[in-house]
Structure formats: structure tokens, C-alpha cells
Amino acid sequence: MSENSSTRKTQLGCVKSSSMDKTVVVTVERKVKHKLYGKYIRRRVNYMAHDAANQCKIGDTVLIEECRPLSKNKRWLVRTIVQQAV
């Protein structure tokens, strides 16, 4: 058999809330081009991510990775903190 390297989706976003225990809300923003007018529009999505060590603070830029369902709404895992908030 060949390598079984699973390629999981990753997203880069900003921590919006860290008030829950071992959970953070991460806002991921992307730009999409309007079909007719060609203007770029910002689209935002909020993801609940598992932060086992409770290290993330509001304003941190984090890399999240998809994983198995951990709760009703939590399907992402905080991989690394890219940049800490000032």
C-alpha cells in the first residue's frame, strides 16, 4: 500500500471569543469576486475550534485544522498560534 497521509483542510483566522473552556471561536475571512460587477466582497465564517491548553486569547491569529466531531458544533482543532495579540 502507498502512504496513507490524510490531507485535512486548514484555515487561518482570528480568535473572536475565548470565554468557553477549551473552546475558541475563530473568524475566517475570505474575499470572493462578484459575478456581475467584479468587485471583491468579504465573506466571514465563524468556526468553533478545540484549544486543549486554553492558550488562545482574543485577537490571536491561529491556524485551525479540521478533525472529527468533538461536540455538537466543534469540528476544528487549533494547530498553532501564528501571531499573538498585542
Automatic annotation (TrEMBL):
Stretches that traverse the bilayer:
none
Q: Which residues form the signal peptide?
A: none
* InterPro entries (alphabetical): NA-bd_OB-fold (IPR012340), Ribosomal_uS17 (IPR000266), Ribosomal_uS17_bact/chlr (IPR019984), Ribosomal_uS17_CS (IPR019979)
Domain of life, per lineage: Bacteria
GO MF entry, a single one: structural constituent of ribosome
Q: Could you tell me which Gene3D superfamilies the record lists for this protein?
A: Nucleic acid-binding proteins (2.40.50.140)
Any one Gene Ontology BP term: translation
**Keyword rRNA-binding set for record:** yes
Q: Which GO terms describe its cellular component?
A: cytosolic small ribosomal subunit
Key words of the record: Ribonucleoprotein, Ribosomal protein, RNA-binding, rRNA-binding
For the keyword rRNA-binding, the answer is: yes
Task: Provide the assembly information.
Answer: Part of the 30S ribosomal subunit.
What protein family does this chain belong to?
Belongs to the universal ribosomal protein uS17 family.
Q: What does this protein do?
A: One of the primary rRNA binding proteins, it binds specifically to the 5'-end of 16S ribosomal RNA.
Listed name of the protein: Small ribosomal subunit protein uS17
